[in-house]
Amino acid sequence: MGPHPAVAAIRLAVRRVLHDVLNDHHRKQLDPAHEPAAPPLVLVACSGGADSMALASALAFEAPKLGVRAGGVTVDHNLQAGSGTRAAEVVTRMSSLGLAPVEAVSVTVGRAGGPEAAARDARYAALDGSAQRHGAVAVLLGHTRDDQAETVLLGLARGSGTRSLSGMAAVSGAAGRYRRPFLQLDRQTARKACMVQSLPVWDDPHNADPAYTRSRLRQEGLPALEKALGKGVVEALARTAQLSRDDADALDHWAADAGRSVRDETGRLECAKLYALPPAVRRRVLRGAVIEAGSPAGSLFARHIEEVDRLITGWRGQGAINLPGRVEARRQGGRLVIRQG
User: Fold this and answer.
1) HEC profile for the chain?
2) Cβ contact 112:121 at 8 Å
3) Residue 340 contacts by C-beta under 8 Å, 6 or more apart in sequence?
4) Could you tell me if 280 and 335 lie in one domain?
5) Residues 12, 131 share a domain
6) pLDDT digits (tens, 9 = 90+) for 136-166
7) pLDDT, tens digit, for every residue of 54-76?
8) From the annotation, which residues make up the binding site?
9) In b/e form, how buried is each residue of 138-164, taking b as 16+ CB within 10 angstroms?
10) What would the pLDDT profile of 171-180 be if each residue is shown by its tens digit?
11) Is 237 a domain residue?
12) What percent of the chain has pLDDT over 90?
């Protein structure tokens, strides 16, 4: 008799990702300049919640069969009393699954961008550090289809365009470090897999705290949408994410080529050439130029780019536009000048 369907589903998802990781690893080994390496190490980012515990168990099961070393890391955000104790418990649970190396990394969460963004930045910095210390080729994240739906809705609320609607990528980070095997699986499947395997899980109280936007969306927003529109909203939003990502990737590629064609011999942006571009492409070119000048991508919103765009499409002699990161954009002699002030 085979494993429970939920367990089989999470294992299959992880197996597919490990095959992709191995293929990438083997391609690098074919490079004559590349030093022969030990079997690749894959880490799981585990909070102790149902999603990441299901992921950790599936990684521990599948990795040895494929000749992959499997370890884990948990991040202690120091935002709740007893967080250090819980992190130590997660390390023990990962070790009991057979994962090695395993570690807990303690971080200090700042305030930039709000509590959720600051915690996310601190967490990814810790995961990057852990991967570098241990030489891991990939870090697996337990984001599910439900998380993807929430991310799409948050992007829609921000009004930040197609890229925001594309949600989380299955592969992201430097050299494709971060992999998300569960984006096609719902949260209930992960929880069921933990239950039938008797895996202890910890439910983060922050996930039910209405002080956090994502928590309100999870507890109130999505249920209200499903009540009004019927079941299938989560699946539809996840499909929207993939379609939007495909569109955004194509537009980004177009914008990269266009960005080179709209500059003069000194590298300055020519307003007439920018004006001739389709709006979606032009705004991407402008966003890239503003970020290149020093504006933090995370602080740059659609309204900022719209203001810069009006220097091209609605020129009435207006002055410089102030942007995040002390960057300013102004129109000067038929050229768009973007630089830090």
Assistant:
1) CCCCHHHHHHHHHHHHHHHHHHHHHHHHHCCCCCCCCCCCEEEEECCCCHHHHHHHHHHHHHHHHHCCEEEEEEEECCCCCCHHHHHHHHHHHHHHCCCCCEEEEECCCCCCCCHHHHHHHHHHHHHHHHHHHHCCCEEECCCCHHHHHHHHHHHHHHCCCHHHHCCCCCEECHHHCEECCCCCCCHHHHHHHHHHCCCCCCCCHHHHCCCCHHHHHHHHHHHHHHHHHCCCHHHHHHHHHHHHHHHHHHHHHHHHHHHHHCECCCCCEEHHHHHCCCHHHHHHHHHHHHHHCCCCHHHCCHHHHHHHHHHHHCCCCCCCEEECCCEEEEEECCEEEEEEC
2) yes
3) 293, 294, 325, 326, 327, 328
4) yes
5) yes
6) 999 999 999 999 999 999 888 876 678 778 8
7) 999 999 999 999 999 999 999 99
8) 47-52
9) bbbbbbbbbbbbbbbbbbeeeebbbbb
10) 999 889 999 9
11) no
12) 72
Binding residues for ATP, by number, are 47-52
Q: Output the CA angle 332-335-340, nearest 5 degrees.
A: 70
Mean pLDDT of 318-329: 94
Q: Find the CATH number of the domain harbouring 128.
A: 3.40.50.620
Structural domain harbouring 312:
262-340
ω into residue 279 within 30 of 0, thus cis? Answer: no
CB 195 within 8 A of CB 204: no
Token pair in block for residue 85: 């104790």
At 284, the amino acid letter reads R
